[in-house]
Design a protein that fits this description.
By secondary structure, the protein is an alpha/beta fold. It has one domain: Nucleotidyltransferase, domain 5 (2-Layer Sandwich), CATH 3.30.420. 25% of the residues lie in helices and 30% in strands. The chain is built from three helices and five strands. It has helices at 41-53, 66-72, 110-119, and strands spanning 4-10, 15-21, 24-31, 57-63, 87-93. The chain has a five-stranded mixed sheet, with helices on both faces. Helix 2 links the parallel strand 4 and strand 5. The longest helix has 13 residues, at 41-53.
Length: 122
């Protein structure tokens, strides 16, 4: 069974998400900032994705600020990731990235792919 890995990176103006199943990218998204999301939005999204793929998801929460993870409802104020029947969260601290304007598409997902590869083997 191929592992389902979801990397979530909340940032100042957006939240980026990359989901992979094995080596295949199955979902890329740019969403509203974590502070604007409903408290159950991220957990519900992850539960739905796990149910859709019929396997639990390993989630990498790539944070610049711990409050972003708490706002998403995926970790506590101390930075410990949550765990449910459908997913478990590992928190990865990252340095702030200054967003660069993009011409097309949803942007550059190389950093999220690296995080998925690094954490995907768990």
């Amino acid at each position: 069974m191929e592992k389902l890995t979801v990397v979530i990176q909340p940032a100042l103006g957006r939240t980026r998400l990359l989901a992979t199943c094995g080596s295949e990218e199955i979902l890329k998204a740019v969403l509203a900032p974590a502070a604007q999301a409903h408290g159950r939005a991220a957990p519900t999204l992850l539960e739905g994705l796990a149910l859709w793929c019929q396997r639990p998801a390993g989630v990498v929460l790539s944070l610049g600020e711990l409050r972003d993870g708490a706002a998403l409802g995926l970790c506590d104020e101390f930075g410990f990731g949550g765990r449910t029947l459908h997913y478990h969260v590992d928190v990865c601290r990252q340095h702030p990235v200054v967003p660069r304007p993009r011409l097309a598409g949803v942007g550059d997902f190389r950093a999220l792919r690296r995080a998925a590869g690094r954490w995907g083997g768990r």
